[in-house]
Amino acid sequence: MPQNATRLRVLALYKELHRLGREYPDAGYNFHGKLRGLFEKNRHLKDDKEIERAIALGEYIRNETLALYSLRKYRHLKRMYPDQSLTDPFHDPPPPPPKIT
Amino acid sequence: MRPTASRLLNILVPVKRTIDYAVKIRVNPDQKGVDLNVKHSMNPFDEIAVEEAVRLREKLKDAVKSIKVVTVGPPKAAETLRTALAMGADSGIHVEIPDSAPAPEPLGVAKALRAVIEKESGGVDLVILGKQAIDDDQGQTGQMLAGLLDWPQATFASKVVVDAGKKEANVTREIDGGLQEVKAKLPLIITTDLRCVSLRSLSVQWLILNSLHHSLNEPRYASLPNIMKAKKKPIQKLTPADLGIDLTPRIETIKVSEPAKRVGGGKVESVDELIAKLKEAGITAVKA
User: Fold this and answer.
1) B25 touches B79 (CB < 8 A)
2) Residue A35: inside a domain, yes or no?
3) Per-residue pLDDT tens digits for B89-137
4) ipTM higher than threshold 0.85
5) Using CB atoms, which residue from B22, B176, B225 is nearest to A91?
6) Which residue in chain A has the smallest CA separation from B208?
7) Interface-testing mutation among B20, B180, B212, with chain A (most A C-beta atoms within 10 A)
8) pTM of the predicted protein model
9) Which residue among B45, B194, B216 sits closest to A66, beta carbon to beta carbon?
């Protein structure tokens, strides 16, 4: 049944977003509450196009969240492991940024 | 063009379970170690190594026969292997040590990896490791392994191009003051650095986000469907005794302490005082 297939897709998307939300860096942001709320708001959708649009929005948010996590980790590593060592005794420290006159 | 290699490439990616990068580290009261009762995850540089292996397979397609991941660690380290399998590896090898055992040292791990490689019936052509682990920051395992096996090594790699037919690789390395390109014959050891991309401009950040979007369509991140698939992939369990190696530590940690606390800044009462303090610090005025 096509209805069943869409329902499974929506449930899978919800589970995925829920799992992702466990690692959200900002503790003040109610990820799970918002997730539940947004899905509940759309539970009575009947039109196929609207349903597809809602699923697409959910997938977009999932990709954005993943990008957020990746970028956060990348930035942290770049800060912790700078290109040039700050305390290497055999090399000069990296040149200071140019003075703006 | 079909690869003319007599044998397809087997890639091995060692990974390590470390304290998660976002956790605030706390030194134990006995000053011999840190609090390990916190969230653990795969070493971020090892994540990059796994991604690199998966990306190589996407480029070389059928020329890559298998991507195996291996870890030396306690029973919980199997979770790290599962994450790697969900990211695209085919199978895992877990060299299991008991929970009570001390953390393995780079030389011990390198000897274990050598034994694993020698046991592999199909041979190993490429070993891709992270450049260092974020818990001990030793950065030695890849280099020691290359020494033990007498294989070439290309460390701090930011770009890897493999020619499967010629069985050689061009690796761009990050060194002080720039980049160095080296060519090496397989079998080869590679350690991965952060991709060399400058994130200073906002437009580049936007580009990164969009390229991440694109790359996230591939099964690189451990999404739920990939995690379920990964549960079916095989993990072979071995002990150090099976490999004939001794993981007894040779180094004793004498003391672990926190870095010196930041000294607070001082407050000034007026602009003149600010200028005076800046002059004291050696900062001179710029001509307006």
Assistant:
1) no
2) no
3) 999 999 999 999 999 999 999 999 999 999 998 899 999 999 999 999 9
4) no
5) B176
6) A71
7) B212
8) 0.81
9) B216
* Residue B196: φ, ψ to 5°: -85, 90
Residue at B97 is within a domain? yes
CB atoms within 10 A of CB B191: 27
Residue B132 lies in a domain: yes
Whether A10 is covered by a domain: the verdict is no
Contact A16 B224 (CB under 8 A): yes
In A, what residues contact B, Cβ < 8 A?
12, 15-16, 19, 25, 63, 66-67, 70-71, 73-78, 80-81, 83-84, 91, 99, 101
User: Among B131, B99, B148, B169, which residue's Cα sits nearest to residue B14?
Assistant: B131
For chain A, the 3-state helix, strand and coil shares in percent, each to the nearest 5, are: 65, 0, 35
Give the nearest partner residue to A77 out of B44, B205, B216, using CB atoms: B44
Q: Which domain holds residue A61?
A: 49-83
Condensed to tens digits (0 to 9), the pLDDT of residues A31-82 reads 999 999 999 999 888 898 999 999 999 999 998 998 888 888 888 888 888 7
For residue B119, tell me if it sits in a domain: yes
Domain CATH number, residue B65: 3.40.50.620
Over residues B224-265, the pLDDT tens digits come to: 778 888 999 999 999 999 999 999 999 999 999 988 887 777
For B:10-69, CB contacts with A below 8 A are 21-22, 44-45
Q: Please check whether residue B87 lies inside any domain of the structure.
A: yes
- Residues B198 and B213: their CA atoms lie apart, in Å, by 18
Q: State which residues form the domain around B23.
A: 9-248
Q: Count structural domains, chain A.
A: 1
Q: What is the DSSP string of B31-49?
A: SSSB--SS-EEE-HHHHHH
Tally of structural domains, chain B:
1
**A14 assigned to some structural domain:** no
Does a structural domain hold residue A19? no
